[in-house]
Amino acid sequence: MTGPQRRRLTGRIQVGLPPDEAFRLFTPRGEQDWAPGWHPRFPVPAPDDTEPGTVFETNAHGQTTIWLVLGRERGKRISYARVTPGDQAGTVTITISPAGPHSEVEVTYELTALTGATGHKLREFADSFPAYLQSWQEALTARLHGQRLPRSHHGN
Protein backbone atom coordinates (compact mmCIF):
# COMPACT_ATOMS: atom_id res chain seq x y z
CA MET A 1 0.00 0.00 0.00
CA THR A 2 1.33 3.42 -0.86
CA GLY A 3 1.48 6.28 1.62
CA PRO A 4 -0.59 9.44 1.63
CA GLN A 5 -0.96 11.18 -1.69
CA ARG A 6 -1.39 14.72 -2.94
CA ARG A 7 -3.20 15.69 -6.13
CA ARG A 8 -3.81 18.93 -8.00
CA LEU A 9 -6.87 18.68 -10.25
CA THR A 10 -8.02 21.45 -12.59
CA GLY A 11 -10.84 21.64 -15.06
CA ARG A 12 -13.12 24.16 -16.73
CA ILE A 13 -16.84 24.56 -17.18
CA GLN A 14 -19.00 27.20 -18.85
CA VAL A 15 -21.76 29.18 -17.13
CA GLY A 16 -24.36 31.08 -19.15
CA LEU A 17 -24.09 34.21 -17.02
CA PRO A 18 -21.62 37.09 -16.87
CA PRO A 19 -18.95 36.73 -14.14
CA ASP A 20 -20.62 39.07 -11.64
CA GLU A 21 -23.75 36.89 -11.68
CA ALA A 22 -21.97 33.54 -12.02
CA PHE A 23 -19.88 34.24 -8.90
CA ARG A 24 -22.87 33.74 -6.59
CA LEU A 25 -23.32 30.15 -7.83
CA PHE A 26 -19.98 29.19 -6.26
CA THR A 27 -20.59 30.71 -2.83
CA PRO A 28 -21.59 28.48 0.08
CA ARG A 29 -25.26 29.49 -0.04
CA GLY A 30 -25.40 30.00 -3.81
CA GLU A 31 -24.29 26.44 -4.50
CA GLN A 32 -27.52 25.21 -2.89
CA ASP A 33 -29.35 26.52 -5.97
CA TRP A 34 -27.84 23.87 -8.24
CA ALA A 35 -25.99 21.22 -6.24
CA PRO A 36 -28.31 18.48 -4.94
CA GLY A 37 -27.46 17.55 -1.37
CA TRP A 38 -25.40 20.70 -0.73
CA HIS A 39 -26.56 22.23 2.55
CA PRO A 40 -23.91 24.34 4.28
CA ARG A 41 -24.25 24.74 8.04
CA PHE A 42 -22.70 27.82 9.62
CA PRO A 43 -21.69 27.43 13.30
CA VAL A 44 -21.98 31.21 13.79
CA PRO A 45 -24.10 33.70 11.83
CA ALA A 46 -22.57 34.51 8.44
CA PRO A 47 -24.43 37.41 6.84
CA ASP A 48 -21.78 37.44 4.07
CA ASP A 49 -20.93 33.82 3.36
CA THR A 50 -17.99 34.86 1.15
CA GLU A 51 -16.16 36.86 3.80
CA PRO A 52 -12.66 35.47 4.33
CA GLY A 53 -12.55 33.57 7.60
CA THR A 54 -16.13 32.30 7.30
CA VAL A 55 -16.44 28.69 8.46
CA PHE A 56 -19.12 26.21 7.43
CA GLU A 57 -19.70 22.47 7.31
CA THR A 58 -21.23 20.12 4.77
CA ASN A 59 -22.20 16.46 5.02
CA ALA A 60 -21.89 13.96 2.19
CA HIS A 61 -21.47 10.20 2.09
CA GLY A 62 -21.65 10.00 5.89
CA GLN A 63 -18.72 12.37 6.38
CA THR A 64 -18.54 15.97 7.58
CA THR A 65 -16.29 18.39 5.74
CA ILE A 66 -15.20 21.63 7.39
CA TRP A 67 -14.72 24.59 5.03
CA LEU A 68 -13.02 27.96 5.52
CA VAL A 69 -13.26 30.84 3.05
CA LEU A 70 -9.63 31.79 2.36
CA GLY A 71 -10.15 34.68 -0.02
CA ARG A 72 -12.49 36.20 -2.55
CA GLU A 73 -12.53 38.75 -5.29
CA ARG A 74 -16.19 39.27 -6.13
CA GLY A 75 -17.07 38.28 -9.66
CA LYS A 76 -13.62 36.78 -10.23
CA ARG A 77 -12.42 34.30 -7.63
CA ILE A 78 -13.21 32.48 -4.39
CA SER A 79 -10.95 30.07 -2.54
CA TYR A 80 -11.70 27.63 0.24
CA ALA A 81 -9.74 25.40 2.58
CA ARG A 82 -11.51 22.11 3.28
CA VAL A 83 -10.83 19.30 5.74
CA THR A 84 -12.63 16.00 6.00
CA PRO A 85 -11.17 14.63 9.26
CA GLY A 86 -9.44 11.29 8.84
CA ASP A 87 -9.78 11.49 5.05
CA GLN A 88 -8.54 14.51 3.03
CA ALA A 89 -7.50 18.13 3.39
CA GLY A 90 -6.76 20.82 0.84
CA THR A 91 -8.10 23.76 -1.07
CA VAL A 92 -10.71 24.48 -3.71
CA THR A 93 -10.33 27.57 -5.89
CA ILE A 94 -12.92 28.84 -8.35
CA THR A 95 -11.73 31.42 -10.90
CA ILE A 96 -14.28 33.07 -13.18
CA SER A 97 -13.37 34.78 -16.45
CA PRO A 98 -15.58 36.53 -19.00
CA ALA A 99 -16.26 34.56 -22.19
CA GLY A 100 -18.48 36.81 -24.28
CA PRO A 101 -21.86 37.03 -22.52
CA HIS A 102 -20.98 33.92 -20.50
CA SER A 103 -18.30 32.89 -18.03
CA GLU A 104 -15.53 30.34 -18.11
CA VAL A 105 -15.05 28.83 -14.67
CA GLU A 106 -11.80 27.17 -13.70
CA VAL A 107 -12.12 24.76 -10.79
CA THR A 108 -8.95 23.64 -8.98
CA TYR A 109 -8.85 21.11 -6.18
CA GLU A 110 -5.55 20.61 -4.36
CA LEU A 111 -6.04 17.68 -2.02
CA THR A 112 -3.91 15.54 0.24
CA ALA A 113 -4.98 12.17 1.58
CA LEU A 114 -4.45 12.26 5.34
CA THR A 115 -3.51 8.58 5.57
CA GLY A 116 -2.25 5.89 3.25
CA ALA A 117 -5.59 4.14 3.74
CA THR A 118 -7.52 7.10 2.27
CA GLY A 119 -5.16 7.47 -0.67
CA HIS A 120 -7.35 5.18 -2.79
CA LYS A 121 -10.32 7.54 -2.34
CA LEU A 122 -8.19 10.44 -3.57
CA ARG A 123 -7.04 8.39 -6.58
CA GLU A 124 -10.68 7.51 -7.38
CA PHE A 125 -11.70 11.17 -7.09
CA ALA A 126 -8.82 12.21 -9.37
CA ASP A 127 -9.79 9.57 -11.94
CA SER A 128 -13.42 10.73 -11.91
CA PHE A 129 -12.67 14.48 -11.81
CA PRO A 130 -13.63 15.16 -15.46
CA ALA A 131 -16.98 13.40 -14.92
CA TYR A 132 -17.40 15.24 -11.61
CA LEU A 133 -17.01 18.61 -13.35
CA GLN A 134 -19.33 17.45 -16.13
CA SER A 135 -21.98 16.83 -13.45
CA TRP A 136 -21.47 20.44 -12.29
CA GLN A 137 -21.86 21.61 -15.90
CA GLU A 138 -25.09 19.66 -16.34
CA ALA A 139 -26.56 20.81 -13.02
CA LEU A 140 -25.69 24.45 -13.67
CA THR A 141 -27.06 24.34 -17.22
CA ALA A 142 -30.30 22.74 -15.97
CA ARG A 143 -30.62 25.38 -13.23
CA LEU A 144 -30.04 28.27 -15.62
CA HIS A 145 -32.64 26.86 -18.00
CA GLY A 146 -35.19 26.54 -15.19
CA GLN A 147 -35.27 22.75 -15.19
CA ARG A 148 -35.84 20.75 -12.04
CA LEU A 149 -32.59 19.13 -11.01
CA PRO A 150 -32.38 15.36 -10.61
CA ARG A 151 -31.21 14.01 -7.28
CA SER A 152 -27.65 13.09 -8.09
CA HIS A 153 -24.26 12.76 -6.49
CA HIS A 154 -22.51 15.94 -5.51
CA GLY A 155 -19.32 15.50 -3.58
CA ASN A 156 -17.44 17.94 -1.45
In a few lines, what is going on in this structure?
This protein has about 160 residues and is of the alpha+beta class. It contains 2 helices and 6 strands.
List the main descriptive attributes of the protein structure presented here:
disordered C terminus; 2 helices; alpha+beta; 6-stranded antiparallel beta sheet; single chain
Task: Tell me what the structure shows.
With 156 residues, the protein is an alpha+beta fold. 19% of the residues lie in helices and 38% in strands. The chain has a 6-stranded antiparallel beta sheet, covered by helices on one side.
Structural class: alpha+beta
Low confidence ranges: 148-156
- Tally of contiguous helical segments: 2
Beta-strand content estimate:
35-45%
Query: What's the total count of β strands?
Result: 6
The first-to-last residue Cα distance is: 25 Å
Topology:
Layout: E1 6-15, H1 19-22, E2 55-60, E3 63-73, E4 77-84, E5 88-99, E6 102-113, H2 119-144
Antiparallel strand pairs: 1-6, 2-3, 3-4, 4-5, 5-6
